[in-house]
Structure formats: C-alpha cells, structure tokens
Amino acid sequence: MPFLFILGLAAFASAFSLRAVDPMLNILAADLGVSLAQVAVLASAFTLPYAAFQLVFGPIGDAVGKLRLVRVNLTVLALGLAGSALAGSHEVLLVTRVFSGAFAGGIIPVVLAMVGDRVSFDQRPVALSRILLALVLGQLSGSALSGFIAAYAGWRDVFWAASALAAVAALACMLGMKELQTRGPLSFGTSIARYGVVLRNPLSIKVYGVVALEGIFTFGAFPMMAPLMVAHGFGDAVEAGLMLGGFAVGGAFYSFAVPVLVRALGLGGMAGVGAATVGLLLMATAVAPMFALALGMFTLAGFCFYMIHNVLQILATELAPEARGSALALFATSFFVGQAVGAILHATVADRFGPTAVFVLCGVVMVAIAWPASRLAPRGGAVGPAESE
Asked: Which CATH number do you get for residue 106?
C-alpha cells in the first residue's frame, strides 16, 4: 500500500514540528533575550491549539475531503514554520507557533481516518502501526535532531528543516494520492451532527474513556520522569530524556511486531495484555535499583503501551465510518486532555507523596483497566467497508 508511505510522511512532519522546540529552549532564550520561563511558553503555544483544533478539522475533513484538508494543512504548516524561522522577536515567534500548531493539529487524526477509509478492518492493525511508526520517529527526530541542528547551525535552521519536511509531505500528497471523497455540506450544524453520529455509538464513550485514562496514567506522568531520576540518584534531565526516548523506541519496535501479535493474541488480547504489562512495568520502573534496569523496563513499557493504544486507534476508526474524521478528532482530543489532566494530577501526587508514588499509581490504574479494555474489541471477523487505492 504505497499511500501509507505518503500518509506516514505527513504524520512524521506534524510530529517533528510538535517536538522541535523542546530541546532548544535555552538557545532560544539566549538569542531572543528573554527568560527561560517566557520561552517555555512556546511549547504550550503549539500544543494547545494543536489539541483544540483537532475538533475543528475532524468534521471539516468529513465534509470537504480528508486528503484535500491534509494537503491544505501541510502547506499552511510549512508556511507557519517558515514564519517561525524568520521571526525577529519572541512575540512574533509565539504567534507563528500558535498558527503552526493549529494547522498541525488537523493532520494526524485526519490521516488516521484516511487509513480507516482506505484499508479493510482486518488489515488495519498493520496499516495503522506503520503510521504509528512514523509518528514515533517524527517525535524522536524532532527531539533529537532539532537539538543537534540548533547547537551547530542555529535555531532558525530547525524551523527551516521542519518547514521543508511539511512542504515535501504536502507535495507528496498532491502528486502521489488522489482524493476518493466527494465534497459534502460544511456548516456548524452539520459538524455538530457528525459528532452526534459518533457519540450515538455506545462503544464511543468506552473507547474515549479508556484512551483518556491512557493519557492520564501514561503520558501524563512523563513530566515526573526527571524528579523520579533525581529521587533515585540516577541523574536528572539527561537521564529523563533517555528514559522517554527509550519509551518511544519501544513503540517503534512494536510497529514491526504487529502481525505476530494480532495472530497470537487478537485485538482484545493485545489491549488486555498491553495494559496489564505496561502497568506492571511502570510500577517496576518506579522502584528499579539501577538506571540501566529502569531504562530497559521503560523501553519495554513503550512496546506494551502501544499494544493497547494501537488497538484503541483501530476501534476509533470504526466507531462511525460516515464521520470517521470526527471520530478520530474526538479520540485525539480525549488523549491530549488526559495528558493535560494527568500532568496536573501527578504534580499534586508527587508534591505530597513523591514521584515514585506517581508511577506506582499509574501502574495500578493501567493494570485495573486491562480487563475492560480487552472487552472493547469485536469478537467476530473483520467489520466495516474496505476501499483500496
């Protein structure tokens, strides 16, 4: 399925732009003459509109055509990132990050919905795992390469590189894929109606609830990794970065194991085993006696986390085939809101009980949701329409 490479490139470009600022905050602060606290707002300036505008772009993709929307969003993202490269002040850079984040948010959920449109249900686990690999690699590259580029070439070149990636992805979508969807009516009323169609499926609330819990009790705990490293005497920011990178590496390895896992466990088994195992590994990481052991377990936790997360993605693509963009927008928003809630919750828990308690709590909850998560997947054969290109 060659179109998966193009969609993966679009997802990669969006994920790269999301993480590009993270490792170069000190460089930006020094060059722009502002405090670290001020420049740290640049990260939120991208992620908040990134999360919020997913709800806007989901119904738009359902109405005007998902591929048309991805082409436009990638093009505008490339322009926004070029604006960031040219920014002459912190204020201008802040505006361009908000602008870029809004349009980047309309790429990944729509890409996932396009996979649902074009790939049969029984082939979707492998297809979505390829998009997942692109996402993970985009986040890793955004964190690792941008730091290297900023240190040796300057922070502006990071944004130029991200802009070029988005432009190449936009061009690939224009030249390498054709729109299969006809235009439909677009209005506020029809957008709300599409969300109503999604939520009328009784499985929707369950899937969105579980993915929100995932966000709270996995990614929501990531800001507590550095305090955990300090508490155990393993180090600080560098070691925390290695731990989070290991989690992503585990996700990358998962993407290659999907066919074997589907045959061995089925979707329900993958969700249950993934949730239970990631929970146990989070608890083990919290009390690991040495850094190397903690890193190994957290890397394996990344592998297991994506077992359940990928299954939830697959289920979300089938909640409302006629409003798939809207369904995936709600899915992504639930996950992001969970992360935001988790960061606040875990900061409170860590302040009172310490960071070790955070990861133990997360592990307990993930084990607890294993059984209900395993019951979400269909027991029958493949369902849903299949289209191919």
From this structure: 1.20.1250.20
Predicted local distance difference test score (pLDDT) of residue 344: 84
Distances (CA, A) of 1 to 6, 124, 130, 360: 10, 11, 11, 41
Contact predicate 163/78, CB 8 Å: yes
Assign 209 a pLDDT band (cuts: 50, 70, 90).
very high
For the stretch 97-123, pLDDT in tens is 999 999 998 999 999 999 999 999 888
Q: What percent of the chain has pLDDT over 90?
A: 58
207 and 376 in contact (C-beta within 8 Å)?
Answer: yes
> Could you tell me how far CA 27 lies from the centroid of its own chain?
26
Helix (H), strand (E) at residue 201: none
Number of domains composing the chain: 2
Helix 66-86 × helix 90-104 angle, to 10°: 170
Tell me, yes or no, whether 58 lies in a domain.
yes
| C-alpha–C-alpha distance, residues 317 and 315, integer Å | 5
Position 214 in a domain: yes
What sign for the dihedral angle of Cα 91, 94, 98, 99? positive
Considering only CA atoms, which of 181, 189, 183, 219 is closest in space to residue 338?
Answer: 219
pLDDT of 162 > 60? The answer is yes
Whether the pTM exceeds 0.90: the reply is: no
Sign of CA dihedral 97, 98, 103, 108: positive
Flag whether 357 is in a domain.
yes
Query: Is 189 inside a domain boundary?
Result: no
User: What stretches of the chain show up as alpha helix (H) in DSSP?
Assistant: 3-19, 25-32, 36-52, 54-64, 66-86, 90-104, 108-118, 124-152, 155-176, 188-200, 202-217, 225-231, 237-286, 291-316, 324-353, 355-368, 370-374
Range of the domain at 127: 1-177
Residue 386, pLDDT score: 33
